[in-house]
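Blinded run. Sample ID left blank on purpose so nobody reads anything into the name before looking at the predicted structure. Input follows.
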Amino acid sequence: MPLKSINCDHLENFTLAEPDKHECEECIKSGDDWVHLRKCQTCGVTLCCDSSPNRHATNHYQQTGHPVIISAEPGEKWAWCYIDQEIKMRI
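Blinded prediction complete.
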């Protein structure tokens, strides 16, 4: 995925909540597996990515409107805004 120029206030103005869990909270409840993890920067929930069968992170956005997630994978430093469809690399 090519990086776009940042024209997204959501990515410029969120307060970083670092990943503290390494499991999808919803997949644990249902006994399902996940591929990668994402952390909501509004409420702090850790959920699975769109490559996972349940797509809990995207479903969470659709239900709540919380715009920004970060990767909860070790070594990955990026944030994604669902509203503006923008990515930002973090340092």
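Unblinding after everyone has recorded impressions. The beta strands are 37-40, 46-48, 68-71, 78-81, 86-89.
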